[in-house]
């Protein structure tokens, strides 16, 4: 156990909300809600649990296309509510937790995103956050009248300028443009400035139609592994998500982003790096492992492929931890395991014990999978007790794991998180609940108090805005260049007319 000595650096915690759970069989757990994706009361209750535990934020993802392949793995992702709608409903029943909404620039325009995020920030009292994703679903193009999905370079060229324009729109109103007195609400048109942006891809000459967000700029999140994504994160993001499954990968990503940020005169603490983390916990280690095994036993496995010699790719490389979990490609069987560990194990019964020589013959990436199994289940290939031996079924489950995972009692979970925090692998974690509401309740009830006892996590919120939670200052307004003499005050776009006209709202009398 790592020392419980109070820590100066504290963790940040986010809740990744997938209504049916992030475990690929979480929706099949007897205590899971299979219909939670469209039950706003259920969503609100889960978020209130996270807020009571002092989580920094709720994360609401989005996909702009439905994928039938998710039916077997994550049915809650096939169809779900639009995130701004959910966040607004959650804002009504919470007071502190940050609200992260996903908006894809590739299929949006800057004015709409600036307007919706600013509105959510006002509605929530300064708790809004924009998760910027450029989109990896080619089929989404068909939903937006396009012939093809943009290339990575096109998407990031657009996203780079898009972010700049959104920030300009947030800043198009001076902080004191709206004033109230005994006569009502007044808006000073001289303190509202069209941004007059003319860039290589985007042209906007208007102001936003509402005051500057309470946070100045809403918190910006981003995730990605490409070089363009890392540069965008280092330059613009306040929080960066990563799917790194191992400590070494997480540490390398962490240090890379922080180093890149320095090029933009940003301090290391200006950006929080938050890997996703699956947590299975209970009062005892044995109980936690039992929950983990119960979930994995619910995974629907695929029939084995015909056993033909020489067809299995046993190349020495790790295929990644998400390539099956979201309905992608590979089947869940021993053909998959054979490719993943570098040893042909097809033809074995799934419940048979794995011979020790399979581990010794596995390549480096394959041995990492064995280590993953042993770490989570405490089973090995050579235990004296057959009940503590690794079975082929365990290898299948490990080969389709999603991200970093910890299974154990509260002290063991806290040890894991503390180690990553203190070794520059994470500033916090985006918690992936395997099923809802159970794993959120368990984490809040068991792990959070242990983290707090160690001084690793707040006892209470120190402020009301998301920026307060992240200890980020409110950015000063960036002034836009003066209007060209050829542009008059009457040339504002129609989308911003209400923002630039003199307006006085009299007090309501009923």
Tell me the helix content.
Answer: 25-40%
Task: Determine the number of helices (DSSP H or I, runs of at least 4 residues).
Answer: 16
Strand content: 5-15%
Q: What structural class is derived from the secondary structure elements?
A: alpha/beta
**Mean of all residue-level pLDDT scores:** 88
* Estimated radius of gyration: 25 Å
- Give the total of beta strands: 14
Spatially, the strands of the biggest sheet line up as 1-2-3-4-9-10-11-13
**CA-to-CA gap between the ends?**
63 Å
Largest sheet: 8 strands, parallel, barrel
Mass-distribution shape: globular
**Uncertain stretches of 5 or more adjacent residues:** 316-328, 482-510
H/E series: EHEHEHEHHEEEEEHEHEHHHHHEHEHHHE
Map the helices and strands:
Elements: E1 12-16, H1 40-52, E2 57-60, H2 83-91, E3 98-103, H3 110-124, E4 128-132, H4 140-143, H5 152-170, E5 178-181, E6 184-187, E7 197-198, E8 203-204, E9 219-223, H6 227-236, E10 239-242, H7 247-262, E11 272-281, H8 285-297, H9 334-341, H10 356-361, H11 364-377, H12 392-399, E12 404-408, H13 410-422, E13 428-432, H14 438-453, H15 466-470, H16 497-500, E14 503-505
Parallel strand pairs: 1-2, 1-13, 2-3, 3-4, 4-9, 9-10, 10-11, 11-12, 11-13
Antiparallel strand pairs: 5-6, 6-14, 7-8
Helix pairs in contact: 2-3, 3-5, 5-6, 6-7, 9-12, 11-12, 13-14
């Amino acid at each position: 156990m790592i020392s419980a000595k109070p820590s100066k650096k504290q963790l940040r915690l986010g809740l990744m909300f997938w209504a049916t759970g992030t475990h690929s069989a979480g929706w099949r757990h007897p205590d899971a809600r299979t219909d939670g994706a469209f039950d706003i009361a259920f969503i609100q209750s889960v978020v209130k649990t996270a807020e009571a535990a002092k989580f920094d934020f709720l994360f609401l993802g989005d996909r702009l296309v439905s994928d039938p392949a998710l039916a077997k793995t994550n049915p809650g992702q096939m169809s779900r509510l639009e995130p701004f709608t959910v966040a607004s409903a959650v804002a009504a029943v919470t007071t502190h937790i940050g609200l992260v909404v996903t908006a894809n620039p590739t299929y949006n325009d800057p004015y709409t995103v600036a307007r919706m995020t600013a509105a959510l920030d006002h509605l929530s009292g300064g708790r809004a956050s924009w998760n910027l994703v450029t989109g990896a679903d080619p089929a989404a193009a068909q939903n937006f009248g396009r012939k093809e999905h943009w290339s990575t370079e096109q998407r990031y060229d657009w996203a780079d300028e898009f972010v700049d324009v959104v920030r300009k729109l947030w800043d198009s109103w001076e902080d004191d443009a709206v004033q109230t007195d005994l006569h009502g609400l007044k808006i000073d048109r001289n303190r509202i400035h069209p941004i007059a942006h003319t860039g290589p891809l985007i042209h906007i000459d208007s102001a936003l139609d509402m005051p500057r967000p309470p946070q100045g700029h809403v918190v910006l999140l981003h995730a990605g592994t490409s070089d363009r994504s890392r540069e965008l994160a280092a330059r613009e993001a306040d929080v960066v998500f990563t799917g790194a499954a191992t400590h070494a990968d997480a540490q390398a990503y962490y240090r890379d982003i922080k180093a890149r940020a320095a090029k933009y005169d940003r301090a290391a603490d200006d950006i929080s790096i938050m890997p996703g983390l699956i947590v299975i916990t209970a009062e005892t280690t044995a109980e936690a492992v039992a929950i983990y095994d119960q979930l994995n036993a619910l995974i629907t496995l695929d029939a084995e492929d015909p056993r033909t010699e020489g067809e299995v790719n046993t190349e020495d490389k790790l295929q990644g931890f998400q390539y099956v979990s979201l309905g992608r490609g590979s089947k869940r069987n021993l053909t998959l395991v054979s490719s993943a560990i570098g040893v042909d194990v097809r033809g074995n019964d799934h419940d048979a014990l794995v011979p020790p020589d399979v581990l010794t013959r596995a390549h480096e990436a394959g041995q990492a999978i064995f280590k993953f199994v042993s770490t989570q289940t405490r089973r090995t290939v050579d235990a004296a007790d057959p009940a503590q031996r690794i079975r082929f079924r365990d290898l299948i489950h490990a080969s389709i794991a999603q991200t970093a995972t910890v299974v154990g009692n509260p002290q063991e979970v806290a040890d894991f998180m503390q180690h990553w925090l203190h070794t520059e692998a994470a500033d916090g974690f985006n918690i992936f609940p395997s099923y809802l509401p159970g794993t959120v309740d368990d984490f809040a009830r068991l792990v959070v108090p242990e983290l707090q006892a160690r001084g690793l996590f707040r006892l209470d919120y120190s402020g009301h805005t998301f920026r307060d939670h992240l200890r980020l200052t409110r950015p000063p307004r960036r002034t836009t260049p003066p209007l060209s003499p050829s542009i008059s005050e009457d040339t504002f776009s129609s989308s911003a007319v209400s923002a630039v006209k003199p307006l006085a709202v009299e007090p309501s009398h009923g």
